[in-house]
Amino acid sequence: MPIPDEIASYNAALSPTHRKIGATLAKAIDAALPSAESKIWHRHPVWFLDDNPIVGYSKLKDGIRLMFWSGQSFDEPGLPADPPATKFKSAAVRYTSVDEIDISTLARWLKKSATIQWDYKNLVKRKGRLERLK
User: Fold this and answer.
1) Could you give phi then psi for residue 9, rounded to 5 degrees?
2) Per-residue model confidence as pLDDT tens digits over 59-103
3) Model's pTM, two decimal places?
4) At a CB cut-off of 8 Å and minimum separation 6, what does 90 contact?
5) Domain locations in the chain as residue ranges
6) 90 neighbors 68 (Cβ within 8 angstroms)
7) What is the spatial distance between Cα 111 and Cα 106, in angstroms, rounded to a whole number?
8) H or E element, residue 85
């Protein structure tokens, strides 16, 4: 599935180093989550399953932050809570070079992201209380 134009434009606006990271992440995410909807959400590329945010990335001063909304539940030592003290279940990793991306690890995380989910879609309706899906 081709990367949506708005995500391609987001990546094109990044520095050359960060552009490579963004393009690599977008390609891997799209390949691993073919049924996901992807779009720019809160000014960053995000992939959704059934309107629930699953994974996205954003530009930081020194790199690219890849975040999984339910990542703390993946039980992955290389994927710390983000932010460290939060009531939510997000976890993230930061990349400063495309060489830091371990494609097999990323594929494992993406596979878990499709099956291990917390219901962020209804977070407001539930007044900030998360419930586990699936």
Assistant:
1) -65, -40
2) 999 999 999 999 999 999 899 988 776 778 999 999 999 999 999
3) 0.93
4) 67, 68, 69, 70, 71, 72, 81, 82
5) 5-133
6) yes
7) 9
8) none
